[in-house]
Amino acid sequence: FDPRHYLGTHCYGFPKTGPHRLRFLLESVTDLRETLKKKGSTLVVRKGKPEDVVNDLITQLGSVSTVAFHEEVGEIL
Fold first, then answer.
1. Measured between alpha carbons, how far apart are the two ends of the chain, in Å?
2. Please, is 54 exposed, middle or buried when counting C-beta atoms within 10 Å of its C-beta (0-12, 13-18, 19+)?
3. Could you tell me if residue 72 is inside a domain?
4. Per-residue pLDDT tens for 1-57?
5. Where does the Photolyase/cryptochrome alpha/beta domain start and stop, copy by copy (predicted)?
6. Which domain holds residue 51?
7. Is residue 11 a part of any domain in this protein?
8. C-alpha–C-alpha distance, residues 77 and 24, integer Å
9. Is 15 in a helix, a strand, or coil?
């Protein structure tokens, strides 16, 4: 979870992620984790800037050969 997604917008100060969307995201992540657990896998969830968190995970794991990302479409920076 990138903390920058939960701050106010640049122009009007409205939250980028409101309470209903946040609840949906948290419930979705919880459901995904439980589904993966039933299949013998797991889900790594971290809070922080992705550019820092991913680097830390790669360092911790030590044997990462590929990392894939996607950019959120329609986001105005």
1. 17
2. middle
3. no
4. 988 887 777 677 777 788 888 899 999 999 999 999 999 999 989 999 988 999 999
5. 1-77
6. 3-61
7. yes
8. 24
9. strand
- The pair of structure tokens assigned to 65 is 């050969």
Nearest CA among 43, 14, 16, 21 for reference residue 31: 43
CB 42 within 8 A of CB 52: no
- For the record, the structure tokens of 59 come out as 């360092």
CATH code at position 14? 3.40.50.620
Residue 42 domain-assigned (yes or no) = yes
- 74/67 Cα distance (integer angstroms): 23
For residue 15, being part of any structural domain is answered with yes
- Radius of gyration for the alpha carbons in the chain, expressed in angstroms and rounded: 15
pLDDT (0 to 100) of residue 12: 77
Both tokens assigned to 56: 């830390």
